[in-house]
Each structure stands twice: as structure tokens, then as C-alpha cells.
Amino acid sequence: MSNPLADMEKPDLIFCIGTNMTECHPVAATRIKKALKRGAKMIVADPRKIALAEMADLYLPIRVGSDVALLLAMAHVIVRDDLVDHTFLQERTTECEEFLEHVVEFTPEWASEITEVPAADIEKAARLYGAADKGAIYYTLGITEHICGVDNVQSLCNLAMMTGNLGRE
User: Fold this and answer.
1) 39: burial class by Cβ within 10 Å (0-12, 13-18, 19+)?
2) Fewest beta carbons less than 10 Å away: which of 46, 60, 63, 147?
3) Is 43 within 8 Å of 137 (Cβ atoms)?
């Protein structure tokens, strides 16, 4: 029996953060590998050089617990470079202007000091994700079980909302 979902459009950018999917979620990791073979690009943010990092177009070896700093700096670049989906924000969110103003102070240089990732790599990650037609975010327990786990997930949600990457195939 054929899978009707197999022919659906797939993300062109995959952002994996805090997840060792090849070991812990091999079925999902297989789908990521297939998307990469079809031409998707991938960013991996993880303190460990996991197997997915070897396949990534950009690997961000962040310091443990610095996820929010990375994500705020990525949001900063997305706003600065006007990669924001303003229509999505206006139609489907509240208090978006306040958030866009809030992230202005969180520069890649600021985050670099905290994450130990070069500012240029943070900018590259933000531009890759922000410019993607379809950006998918994959995360697991690696970011949720920190003391700042809620902030980590909210920060990922903010990236998805500000780029309109919700409710899409």
C-alpha cells in the first residue's frame, strides 16, 4: 500500500536543537535523512557532536543551557533583516510588535558570549531559517528538561510564528 503522505511537500530547512534523533527517534531521523537527500538544508544546535551534526549544513555547538540566548539572537537577526512574516503575525498573534521590539537588544554578539558559538554562525542560522520557504523545528527532551525548558520551547514557538512556519505542510 502506498503512503499518500510520501508525495507531500517537505521542509526545505530543518532546525534540530537538543535532540539526538538518530539514537532516540530513529524513524523520525530517517525522514530527516530523506529530506536532506531531496535537498533540504539542516541546522543542528547541540553541545554534543551527534550524528546529525555530521550531516548538517551548519552545526552550532552551543554551551549547555544557552538555548534561549541562541534563539533570541536568531529572532534579532530575523527582525533586523526583515525576514518576518508580518501578515502571519498580524492575523494570528497578539502583542507581536512588543516582541519584535524586545528582541532588538539580543544581538548575535551578545549571544556569542553566552553560547560560545561565533556570532557569524548565529547570523547564518537565523538567515537560513528566516529565509526558508518551509522551516521545520525538531526538538526533544534535550531542551525541555532544563530549568529553562518552558522558555526554550516558547522561544522556538516565537521563531516559528515570526516566520509563519505554523500550520503548513
Assistant:
1) exposed
2) 147
3) no
